[in-house]
Structures are given as structure tokens and as C-alpha cells.
Amino acid sequence: MNYYVKKCLPFVLAVSFFLAGASYALAGAEASGKILLLYYSKTGNTKAACEALGKALNADIREIKDRNSRDSGPGIIGAMLKINLGMQTDTDPEKIDFSPYKNIIVAAPVWASKLGLAMKTFIENNRFDGKDVIIFITADSFIDEKYQEKHRQLVKDSGGTVLGNFQVQATDLVNKEKVPRTKEKIVEEALKFVPQMQKSLAGK
Ligand SMILES: Cc1cc2nc3c(=O)[nH]c(=O)nc-3n(C[C@H](O)[C@H](O)[C@H](O)COP(=O)(O)O)c2cc1C
What we know:
This protein is of the alpha/beta class. Helix content is 45%, strand content 26%. The protein has seven helices and ten strands. 31% of the residues are buried.
């Protein structure tokens, strides 16, 4: 080994280790295995389920709110009109930087067989390119495949890859009548999906 190589070798090695470490750290900061759970909820069913799911999956949770009140009759009628006419509402937040995440769960109640207006709007206004997405819904009735495919298409149109759909009923049929389930029951049902969600996100 000549003199200059001997002299420079420790420096070259130190720089190489530093660069390798820095690129590893940057790659980690770009998109980790950490899950981002986004939810919209009007009456608290989806929220209760998502708070429990978020804890079980160690996910970061963000609530998507509708800037327009949906607490009264006119607010609901306005939302239903917008959903059926393919219009949007204003959401808070409008956009989220997804770059720290590879895995995203989008959760919403079903409204008129579609995802609740605020979540539908949020998905349409954000890009999910390169993200693996799970869709979680709560609804009074069982939502069949035809509508779930439309939910998936919404995410695909925004660039996401859908890994799975999960749904929890917010009512039970008792003597042919729909009886609302307690939040505890909704949480219990949602938590049954944790192993399946983990498998989907792990690509198994
Ligand atoms: C405006 C509106 C429309 C709804 N449309 C449907 C529907 O089409 N199918 C259904 O099964 N449930 C429907 N529901 C019931 C909700 O999806 C269900 O109660 C859900 O669990 C509510 O979630 P949240 O408490 O997180 O808002 C609707 C509720 C509202 C307020």
C-alpha cells in the first residue's frame, strides 16, 4: 500500500460510514412501517373503533373533520345532495403530508352507500401514490361488494394500492328491527380485525 493510500484510508472509511448512516437515516425518515390512521366520524362509531384500532396497531391517528356542520337536518340533506351529485365539502385538514408513512388506513361511516362526504373529499384531494391502504367502514347495514369496489376505486383513483376492506355493523337486527350497537360492541368487533390488518400490511 503506498503512502498516500495508507494516510487517506481512515478518512475514506470514516466518510463512507457517515454517508451509509446518513442515507439509512434518510430512507427511514422517508417512509417507515408506521401506520397512519385517518378517520371521519359524525356520531362517534367510527371514532371509537379507530381509537381502539389505532392503539392496537400502534398507528398515528388523524381525524378528518367536515368544516360544514352536519349536526342538523339541513346539514345532512346538503351532504346527501353533495354525495349524490359527486360534489365535495371542505375538510380540516385539506391535505396531509404522507411521506413518513407507507401504510395508511382510511376509516369512515358509510353515507348513501359511499364513504362519508368528508373522507370522500379528503381522499379525492390527496395523493396516495406508493401507499398501501386499508379501508375501514362502519355502517348500519352490511355493505356489499359492489359498493366496496367503489370505495376501493376512490382510493385507486388517488394513486393508492388497496390491501383490504373491513367493515363493522353499527346495528343489530332484533325482531327485524335495526337496534343500534353500543360503542363497546363496535370496538370489540373492530378489534377482531387487528390480526388480519397486520397480515395485510405485512404483505402476507
Ligand atoms: C347521512 C347519513 C347517511 C347514511 N347512509 C347509510 C347507508 O347508505 N348505509 C348504511 O348502512 N348506513 C348509513 N348510515 C349509517 C352510518 O353509516 C352508521 O351509523 C355509522 O356507523 C355512523 O358512523 P359515525 O358514528 O362514525 O358517524 C348513514 C348515516 C348518515 C348520517
